[in-house]
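We both want to read discrete structure tokens more fluently, so let's practise on a single case. Would you write everything just below, so we can both look at the same thing?
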Amino acid sequence: MRQTQTSHVVDSVHDELKIVKDLYDTGDLTFFANAGVINKAGLTKQNYKERTRTQLFAHNAMQREVAKVDPYDKIEGTGIMGRAKDMLSKNGHVVGTISIDNPSIAVDGTLDESRPATIVGRRGSRKFAIRSNNELDFDIEKYARTLNGEAEAFSGIFGETWSERFMAGIDEAEEYQTIFESVDIDESTSTDSGIPDYPGDNNLEKEHWQKWSALLKLVQMKDLRNVDRDFFFTELGRWDSHNLMKEDLRKQLSALNFGLEMFVKEAKSSGIWDEVAVVIASDFGRTLTPNNNDGTDHGWGGHYMIMGGDVKGGQILGEYPTDLTAAGPLVDNFGRFLPTTSWDSIWNGILEWTGVTEQTDLDYCLPNRLGTVDPVVGTERSFPLLTADSIFMPRQRSEGRNLRGGKE
């Protein structure tokens, strides 16, 4: 895919994203140009509605599609990382899928193929039945286990499933709280009280850092969790700037930069940087043209990035639009861009890096990948699927490699 000179990127990266520029310059970050949800190849400004099943320009629909990467529901109820977990588990790996704070279909696989995904709070897990000192004589956990362990002849499958998940949740909460209490993250920018010195005047930096630090702790304790592969999902909201876009975006990017800087620093110092790949994704880009409120509206194609020690950085994969006017082949009358690189193509290369290399396994993980090749009519060249060698360093793939993904 096309590679762009560093000087062009320097002028394009927001000045709040210092860590992004630094990683690009040092060869640890690559951009994906004009990427997005693509259902079917051969898109034009005239036919894209007929060739797209996804409800375009709607947050809920396109967020779900970015998490699923399965627009025709070939494997219902699953997401891209969950299906990768299925395949890697089938091939003998022990794979964890974890979502921070909230559930996400991105990490859901097929239940009979691999173990269920786990949801962990950004500040850890709350243990079951925390009691005050005068209540310690009553062992409520033992009582709960006894109550939920009993089965009768007429016990229903829903009740048994609920009890099983309830008890597993108690055990998982204790396990993950132990993990959070065991890892000590070095925060050189923290105050004497041990609380990070957040640069902003709001809670955005705190929220971002809590999520990135949760990821770090879980990654560093992978041996305690008995896994050799990992997929993580976390979501950072408040990017829908219909009003005062420049002002709001600066706050958001400052918070993102703060969290990423601390994440990268700790990942490098703890020796896990070469084993992680952080994928920054979104539901869609924004319109190039502003609205009447100094904001932007819902778009389609956008520019994203991947970072990590094994990433072949300093490049831009995909094709930046050559004509930004409404007369260009990729821009509609609202300033929205038809994407030229599909998420199927991007994940094709990422999954190869994690160890999903057989074509049949890739077809399972990406049921629509072959339908997104050469997606847009009228662009300068063809768009084959990305491979591991186009995104990552061309060296022998390690059997112990893990993937840790973030989502914006």
